[in-house]
Amino acid sequence: MNMEMMGAKVKEIIEPAIKGLGVALEDMELRKMGRRVFLRVIIDKEGGVTIDDCEQVSREIEAQLDVEDPIPYPYTLEVSSPGLDRPLKTQGDFKRFCGKTARIVTSTPVENQTFFIGEIIEAGDTDVTLLLSKDKKINVQYKDIVRARLVYDP
User: I want to staple 44 with a disulfide (CB 3.0 to 4.6 A). Which of 26, 91, 133, 149 is the partner?
Assistant: First the structure.
């Protein structure tokens, strides 16, 4: 079984278990490291994730994976939250974090720039609108975004 198929099987097993604990699977990474496999699971919930949430999810995932055994190698499991500077990957992420500050890098220049920091003021179907300063707005097409993260402002 290749890593892609193994990842799909792991996700199929753990997603319902995680959802049953009241958290959402935000992202998952499965990669081979020598003779071991590294499984990183990023969870989120309304109001934020606690250490107790991570511990509970970790125990549940380990139990499910022990029963189903989809990873035929020794593995290391890491469960964490997306963090304060969480990545923005989907249109839904941008919509969810309207009103927050984001740092965006684009593949092609928009108004002669490829790096922006501004408040997400609108997340449409094809683009996101940032307020860069009091009167400067910019629209960035989702297809042009290489990386985007929230900016932590205490």
Answer: 26
Distance of alpha carbon 129 from alpha carbon 137, whole angstroms = 7
- pTM of the full predicted structure? 0.75
Which phi and psi angles does 8 have, rounded to 5°? -65, -40
The per-residue DSSP string of the chain comes to: --HHHHHHHHHHHHHHHHHHTT-EEEEEEEEEETTEEEEEEEEE-TT---HHHHHHHHHHHHHHHHHH----S-EEEEEE---TT-B--SHHHHHHTTTSEEEEEEEEEETTEEEEEEEEEEE-SSEEEEE-SSS-EEEEEGGGEEEEEE----
Is residue 37 within 8 A of residue 75, CB to CB? The reply is yes
Token pair for 126: 């094809």
23: which residues sit within 8 A by CB, 6+ positions away?
43, 44, 45, 49, 53, 57
pLDDT digits (tens, 9 = 90+) for 32-45: 998 999 999 999 99
At residue 135, the pLDDT reads: 84
- In CATH terms, 91-150 corresponds, of 3.40.1260.10, 3.30.420.40, 2.30.30.100, 3.10.20.310, to 2.30.30.100
